[in-house]
Amino acid sequence: CPDRSFSGRSFLITAGPTWEFIDPVRFISNPSSGKMGVELARAAWYRGGDVTLVCGPGVSVDVPGVRFIPVISAEDMLLRCMENRDVDVIIKAAAVGDYRVATPSSSKIKREGRERLTLELFSNPDIAARLGEEKGESQILIGFAAETNNLDENAVKKMNAKGLDAIVANDVTEEGCGFGVDTNRVVMLDRSGGRFEFSGSKEDVSHMILDRVAVMMEGAK
Ligand code: C5P
Fold first, then answer.
1. pTM score, whole prediction
2. Domains defined for the chain, CATH in brackets
3. Which of 2, 38, 57, 86 is most buried when burial is the number of CB atoms within 10 A of its CB?
């Protein structure tokens, strides 16, 4: 008999990279495949959750039953997250671009006669932090942290700075971990000092993360 334990619970999940256009044919992005967020959406839906997935470009989403909202840039993602933030659980698995181009060119930038091209970048809004500021009383907000060193320390700093209830951190320099691959090895840290290590396929890791979310929901009642 299928697990319907999230029946009546609503989720907003973000996945994938963002594209910040330089001109109509070029953009700044990152190697995020969106797989972790898509698997989380699938796992939450599988358990009976009402799931909205706000997803950056280039991500293949094959999850039936999930409300899919495609976005391009960090600013688009912020807008759609704010519109859909009235949920029980928010999981921010997207790799949001930290900067956008200050003045994207409306026509293709030509290479001829240009030895050097300088781009001015503006800092993007921190979506997780904005959601953290407006977090509802019993709402659960979970972030991700892709790190290359001092995993726990950097993750805890981010959890506190962004007002998150828990953070899932991984070392993206480890093999079989993070960007693009089907497996992951993560550390999930929460506000009450809990520390859990999960590894396996992104599908399995999603279920392990959601098991913790279920425990947090019980505590938030
Ligand atoms: O990029 P950073 O390591 O700070 O990301 C940590 C968390 O914050 C992730 O959950 C990510 O989705 C979120 N984030 C965001 N908006 C940004 C940058 C990061 O929501 N502009």
1. 0.94
2. 10-108+120-220 (3.40.50.10300)
3. 38
